[in-house]
């Protein structure tokens, strides 16, 4: 391995120039994946600990983790879309990676047919072997993921009796190759016609779900220590990378959208020095008081006795991105009013009428803003 490493450093282009560190790193990365496959399935007498050392690899400039984007991630984890992946092993691996952010290798080679745990309170977890530390770990999963794993366990036991690896490919317990998973995900992207702004198919790897999930969790207000635990990061420094990405993503949304108050009045965003100060209040307010349908405009350092958003609070504000949630809330109140009226429960009707009216007012204001922004965006595109 060391000999090949030295050789890569001497390879030159046709014009006599050496290849860039990025190109050398890509070659060594491909070789590293091949070695992983060989050692996992014992195709050759190579120690499982055989790896390039970090200080042996070409030095690359640090770059931020690549994100898939919330909407793309949602499409790739959608159960209906996942049916397009014909290989059952690949389909489940993509689902688990998309939902949990686990490393591809931890899933493919670290999960067995007894990996599923059902807790007494109806919650589910999966147990896997950490590919880096070689120790068992567990992460919580949603019931829909647990049921998919449960079905796959039954399938694997019926097709490969006696197998132990959840993603074994034959009776010798040879696990699925990592490159096969990548190819299945690439084919799914192409089948769904997911493209970049340049019109090319979006390059997606299973590891990118890890980056996207971590950023989304932090953006939703999950404590960094919890995210660190879910990602199995030994150092908080690794998790802090996603915290910076999260703040950047939230800032970009905040700068582009226009908020309205609980009274339906537009909340103007200041400029200059005042803009930075306003952003800090908005960012801290979103972190300290995570709301399902907007954000809290309460000054930093103050506390609120209410755990949920109050539609009548003068400090509450919301933006067009929350329109689906607000519409669902309005419809729920409308249905309650209809049912109560039919049963003659006047108090319940009146109890739901006030939030119904308030939500209608908010939605009307936000829809006006949304139409205006779409018109501007359409004009710019033209």
TrEMBL record:
Residues 59-255 form the Tyr recombinase domain. The keyword Calcium does not apply. The keyword DNA-binding applies. InterPro entries: DNA_brk_join_enz, Integrase-like_cat_sf, Integrase_catalytic, Tyrosine_recombinase_XerCD. SUPFAM superfamilies: DNA breaking-rejoining enzymes (SSF56349). Keywords: DNA recombination, DNA-binding. One of its GO terms (biological process) is DNA recombination. GO terms for molecular function: DNA binding. Belongs to the 'phage' integrase family. This is Tyr recombinase domain-containing protein. It comes from Homoserinimonas hongtaonis.
